[in-house]
Amino acid sequence: MSQNMSEKGDAISPAENNDGNSTDFSKTDDSNEVFKRGDGAVDFRTVGWIHASVIFLKLIFATGVLTIPSAMYVLGALPGAINVLGWQFLNTYCAIVQGNFRNNHAGCHSIADMANVVGGLWLKEVVGGFFLVTFAIVGASGIFGASVGFNALSNHAICTNSYMLVATAIVFLLASVRKFEKIAWLTWAGFLSVFVAVFIVVVGVTQLDRPAAAPQTGDFELGYHVIGHPSFVAGITSVATIFCSGAGTSAFLPVMSEMRRPRDYNKAVYVCMGLVTAAYLSFSLVVYRYCGMWVASPSLGSAGAVVKKVAYGVGLVGLLVSACVYVHVAAKYIFVRILRDSKHLQSNSVVHWAVWLSCTLGVSVVSFLLAAGIPIFNYLLALAGSLTFSPLALGLPAYLWIYDHKHYRTGGFLKATAYWLNWLLILLSAFLMIGGTYGVIQQVIDAYANGEISSAFSCADNSNSS
User: How many Å apart are CA 238 and CA 1, to the nearest integer?
Assistant: First the structure.
């Protein structure tokens, strides 16, 4: 590596451009970056790769881990494990593709900017809309999870929706922290909080003679299956839930725009996804093995009342920080869209702060409305996985790769195979989007019909619904 490259803080390794030729990115500068340096502007590019990896961890290892065991009950242990490994592999691949594409096309702050490169303004607006809906939904899952925690700790002292309002207010305040660098310190606490909480539950379920939710006397059916036999609706919903647990990779890109050295992005992704995959697989298999059909959703309630309170007491910070990061990512997208190329983007002006706080408040309110309207944890995540994450985290990244590697179609066998496999990934994305969305909508309709959800915005606690 040349001295010039090593001295250039934002240089990245040479990569092939659209024509198959080598592009030396050591010669790039900050002129096309969203956030500029110098001239008295507020410096947003302050995130190191270790902080970036922890932010990524909190984006991925969040509410998803709390619902995988119940998805495994539907699918069975073996198909569930295969789904965890397979989706995490694809999500990691697509995260790397997005980072490489961003470095090939300077100035892309979000997945919507990348869509603009490959499809023009109309695709940018469509993808931007999907992005906002996605992170409003997963923000809702964090708010809902936090409300379940408040309920558990207070023995349901007040209405669930009141706790959702409390959680939303806290999330708004945390999400309004302006820089990812500052949020990184919150994500350290948030990740450790959820990790320790889940670990407490994993240990707790292994100490019980029978699952806490099962009949405590007489015979009972555990409901543990190596291979399950679900209906299409139940199966596709569970598949979408597992996929969603690692599909938030489009949120990595705004973080990348605030990294000191964007070339370290891949390193942060590999660290994050490796840890997440190992934790998801081990935690979910143990909880499902000991709880079977009696697993709670969120899974923090699976080891009995006492452990549930301890787990939620430890994990509440993580649930709030999860929602905070999701809301922040969505709000930052709107904020940059409004103020990009304006003097207010990197200033401390009244306009800057008014726009920023309006964005975080607006996204927080939408997330609250979604949490109250679909108050079943699994369904919120499955809806995000099928309706919005499938095109954002699978379909579009595959097309980004195809756009930058058109010449692979007429290359050798391996290059041609890679080219057509990416087209196959687009088809998989379309299937998951259509089939998964149908499955979730049908299950929500059934839940209202059979009384599992009494009504939207009701005070009923649906935390144990799966």
Answer: 46
* CB-based burial label for 155 (10 Å; 0-12, 13-18, 19+): exposed
Helix, strand, coil shares of the chain as percentages rounded to 5?
A: 70, 0, 25
Quote the crossing angle between the two packed helices 396-404 and 111-119, to the nearest 10°: 50
pLDDT in tens, 151-168: 888 887 777 788 899 999
Residue 242 structure tokens: 């597992």
User: Does a cis peptide bond (omega within 30 degrees of 0) precede residue 79?
Assistant: no
Of 258, 292, 255, 301, nearest in space to 152 by CA: 301
Q: Say if CB 460 and CB 160 are below 8 A apart.
A: yes
The answer to whether the CB of 279 falls within 8 A of the CB of 194 is: no
Task: For each of the domains in the chain, give its residue range(s) and CATH number, in order of start.
Answer: 42-449 (1.20.1740.10)
Q: pLDDT for 9-35, tens place per residue? A: 333 333 444 444 433 333 344 556 665
In three state form, how does the secondary structure of 86-147 look? HHHHHHHHHHHHHHHHHHHCCCCCCHHHHHHHHHCHHHHHHHHHHHHHHHHHHHHHHHHHHH
| Contact call for residues 172 and 327 (beta carbons, < 8 A) | yes
Residues 6 or more apart whose CB falls under 8 angstroms from that of 223 comprise 73, 292, 293, 294
313 burial via Cβ count (<10 Å: 0-12, 13-18, 19+): middle
* Helix residue ranges per DSSP H, 340-388: 350-373, 377-383
d(CA 147, CA 161): 8
**Taking the model in full, what pTM does it have?**
0.81
CA 243 to chain centre: 10
In angstroms, rounded to a whole number, what is the distance separating the alpha carbons of residues 343 and 226?
A: 59
Query: Can you tell me which residue has the tokens 């490169």?
Result: 117
126-136 tens-digit pLDDT: 999 989 988 88
